[in-house]
Fold this sequence. Notes:
Elements: H1 2-17, H2 19-48, E1 59-66, E2 71-74, H3 78-87, E3 91-105, E4 111-118, H4 122-126, E5 130-133, E6 148-151, H5 153-160, E7 170-173, E8 176-184, E9 197-200, H6 205-208, E10 217-222, H7 228-245, H8 247-250, E11 254-259, H9 260-300, H10 302-310, H11 315-351, H12 366-393, H13 396-402, H14 410-446, E12 457-463, H15 472-486, E13 491-497, E14 508-513, E15 526-532, H16 536-540, E16 544-547, E17 561-565, H17 566-572, E18 582-585, E19 593-599, E20 614-618, E21 633-640, H18 648-658, E22 665-669, H19 670-677, H20 679-713, H21 715-723, H22 728-757, H23 773-799, H24 803-809
Parallel strand pairs: 4-9, 6-8, 15-20, 17-19
Antiparallel strand pairs: 1-2, 1-10, 1-11, 3-4, 3-7, 3-10, 5-8, 6-9, 7-8, 12-21, 12-22, 13-21, 14-15, 14-18, 16-19, 17-20, 18-19
Amino acid sequence: MGFLTQDVRFGLRMLRKSPGATLVAVLSLALGIGATTAIFTIINAVLLRPLPFRDPSSLVVIWEQNQKRNIKEFEAAPPNFRDWTERSHSFTALCGLRQLPATMLGAGQPERLEIARVSPCLFDMLGIRATYGRSFLPEDGDPSHAQVAVLSYGLWQRRFGGERSVLNRTVTLDGATYTIVGIAQPGVKLLNTASELWIPYVLDSKELAERGFHTLKVFGRLAPNVTIQQAESEMTSIATSLAAEYPDMNANWTVDVVGLREQMTGGLQQPLWILMGAVGLVLLIACSNVASILLMKAGARQKELVIRTALGASPWRVLRQMLAESVILSLVAAALGIGLAWIGTRLLGRITPPSIAELHDLSMDWRVLLFALVVGVLTGIVFGLVPGVSAMRTNLNNMLRASGRSGMVSLGWGRMRSTLVIGELMLAQLLLIGSGLLIHSLIELRNVPLGFRPDHVVSARVSLPDTRYKDLNVGRFYQRLLERVSVLPGVQHAAVTRDLPLSGVNPSLNFEIDGRAPQQSSEQPRARFRSASAGYFEALGIGLAQGRTFDRSDSDHTQPVAVINETLANREWPQASPLGRRIRSGFDGSPWCTIIGVVKDVRHGAIDAIADGEIYYHYLQVPPALMNFTENTMTIALRTEREPHQMIGSLRRELAALDSELALYDVRTADELISNSVAQPRFRTLLLAIFAASALVLASIGLYGLLASSVMQRMNELGIRAALGASVSDLLRMIVSEGLVLAAVGVAIGVALGLVGARLLEKILFGVTPRDWAAFTITPVVLLLIAALASFVPALRAARVDPAEALRDQ
Length: 810
């Protein structure tokens, strides 16, 4: 223990002797540890921290899928869910969840909420207990039982002020009254849904009669000793039986069973580990910088090492003291890095897109602190070993012979520092290539033709409760709303639609073409269904390719009409015009609709998704069999002359004038829709670019430090060169060229490794190959230019050396 205390004191004394170098080393390492700890905080929150459910390893999510139609992770049809519950034996429980919007009245102004209808067994299956009151009981699923609701903790705090007296009070949801029986635990989130209120889900006869509507998210708990593979095998067998029993709706449909952890984090795992690898490279560069600084200090202490070794100090003793110095430095950097990580996680929470909800409430628990401590100690040992081992391997006789000749002993140290700098530049080049690929990919994504003009467009959703609006009353209400809104000052076009572009895709449905031979349901053509009013295509700036769009002459009393997109037109009528042809949905009794126009393809789903065939129905002429898709909810879209958000106040007033119990919600401009659609790739690109910039700065500091110390040690040589006639430009060129040679070697190795490593990014790139020419040509040039700049400052000092002064100092 006495030796340890002595080593610590000696290390502190040596660090205080060179405060500038110590400060640079601490800050460099703190940046690396802080960035690494911040990313580990995210990985801990998303991938490592236990899910807040009872025995989460046995929880699964069950999806329907149709490989023939390329449909994956599709919600279940309620009749299929009922059959799964009755026929399966691999689960102790199967519970459904259907997320819907609803307008809540009571305790303030009308508010539109995301609510979830859930099987009464769901909370008990997940092990979620109520903070106050109770969760659902089995009898709550009985249609004759009083309707009850459970509030989320956040809604309880926000809307009801956290008062316990809210229990047994009633709220009105879309005209129906519910009694509040419980307050859920804080932070309850089911399959990344953002529900703020839960009510029991009851399968009604209408839902059980239709297998074509897939509306349920299904959760299950595996029975003891049953694996996911065994459960999926049984569910696949059940799906095969259902396909034979109901070929019209269940043909080609199978089942996919996914672990809950994998389901909730699957889309984030690869990007997070890529970011962890990137920040690990930044940490390596920081460690190389610190090792280089310690090598420089060790080189300056050569005479001390000679004397200590000559007096009998063992190599292990020298190594131990150098390790003590480096570990002290790294622990100080780790403490500072934890502070930087805390700040970084707060900033990440602010810039994280809403679609990555897991990153909005990051916290640093014991795992994170232990990780930072371990990283600090390990990095201290690693970068302390570099100069320490070099000192142990140095031959004492050579040191004694060379100790009086400046520059001889430092040659080996200089080579090692040069190797470290080359490694830093190589790692920086790797990060620059990765960020360059993602930046180019993001540019390509933003340049994708969207099929509409987003400028000066604002939208908001309105939902009408079933209890007060039925059938034609829905259409009449939206017609009156459009009449009032269309005449507002500044409004150029106003329309309503089921879904805006980039807001998600509707299911693909069967339809028939008049004049073609009848086909089985599984063989009929398919297209995605949409509804819109007159003026919709003009409001969104969607181009017209053929015919006309909806106008005021189209109504619920006129011949049904439809507009299709170019993809569907080219697929079904490749050699002829579809205008005047008649189509109808694949359900018996649906009316024939005449195609009156063809519009340009619009990106409705993911911005990088391939366009699919689409049919637009007039919102007053939607076939009865498809009315279930509307759910009385429509989006009103305005193209304005003024700033779009300025119209929201007027829109709220017009809505309140028609019905004061309705709420306007999900207010967005079209530009915000586009921004949200690229939020995740923009977020990961930003993070990797930040890491690449950090690596570039650290590598530049390392190169600058190497050349600056080289100039200091070579003052005698530089003075002789100047005395013998070397010009300022000669000395500048010599030092800068030395830096560029090191940079060129590092860049060349980095590019070679980048050609291999870039394949890790292939799955998250869009419109860019892993060997994109821009990333592999522009980033090396940038790094070489920065290296030249980092080399110029010490080169300028070398060029200004006074020969007489340099020779006199030697």
